[in-house]
From TrEMBL:
The active site is at E64 (proton donor). This is Cytidine deaminase. InterPro entries: APOBEC/CMP_deaminase_Zn-bd, CMP_dCMP_dom, Cyt/Deoxycyt_deaminase, Cyt_deam_tetra, Cytidine_deaminase-like. Its cofactor is Zn(2+). Belongs to the cytidine and deoxycytidylate deaminase family. GO terms for cellular component: cytosol.
Length: 159
C-alpha cells in the first residue's frame, strides 16, 4: 500500500475538465450549491458525478459519492485520483461522509484536487493569487481512518 500516486499532466487536465463538466449535471434546487466530481480509474477511465438533492434533504447525495457509486456499480472498484469543483471561487473539500465512503476504494496517497470555480487552465498558477487548485493526499483529508483492512485484524476471543 502507500505507494505515492502521481498524476500525469494529461490525466490531470482530463480530470479537471471532467469535474467542470460533471457540475453541469447537478440537481441542487434547495442549496443552489452545484458540485461536480470526477474520479480517475487505474486504467485512465474517468467517472463523473454531481450532487443530487432531494426534497427530503437527508436523502441528498453528494457529487463525490454519486461518482463513486457510478464507478463501483460499473465494476471500477479502485480509483486513483479525485477532482472536485463547486461554484465558489475557493478550493472546497469533500464532506466527512464522502471521505469515509471513498476510503473504501482508494489509496491513502490518492491525490485530491480541489478546484476553485475561477480556475483557468490557461493560468494554472492563478491570477493575483486566485484560482489556484489545492491538492492534497486523501490521507490528509481523513487521517487515522478506518478501512476494509481493519476488519481483517485479529480479535481477542470473546469470553
Ligand atoms: Zn459529501
Amino acid at each position: 500500500m502507500s505507494t505515492t500516486l502521481k498524476l500525469s499532466e494529461e490525466d490531470r487536465s482530463k480530470l479537471i475538465k471532467a469535474a467542470f463538466e460533471a457540475r453541469e449535471g447537478s440537481y441542487s434546487p434547495y442549496s443552489k450549491f452545484r458540485v461536480g466530481a470526477a474520479l480517475l480509474s487505474p486504467n485512465g477511465e474517468i467517472v463523473k458525478g454531481a450532487n443530487i438533492e432531494n426534497a427530503s434533504y437527508g436523502a441528498t447525495i453528494c457529487a463525490e459519492r454519486t461518482a463513486m457509486v457510478k464507478a463501483a456499480s460499473e465494476g471500477i472498484r479502485k480509483v486513483v485520483a479525485l477532482a472536485v469543483v463547486t461554484d465558489v471561487p475557493d478550493a472546497v473539500s469533500p464532506c466527512g461522509i464522502c471521505r469515509q465512503f471513498l476510503r473504501e476504494f482508494c489509496s491513502l496517497k490518492m491525490p485530491v484536487l480541489m478546484i476553485p470555480a475561477n480556475y483557468d487552465a490557461q493560468h494554472p498558477e492563478g491570477v493575483d493569487g486566485k484560482g489556484v487548485i489545492k491538492e492534497v493526499t486523501f490521507e490528509y483529508l481523513l487521517p487515522l481512518s478506518f478501512g476494509p483492512e481493519d476488519l481483517d485484524r485479529p480479535r481477542i476471543p470473546a469470553e
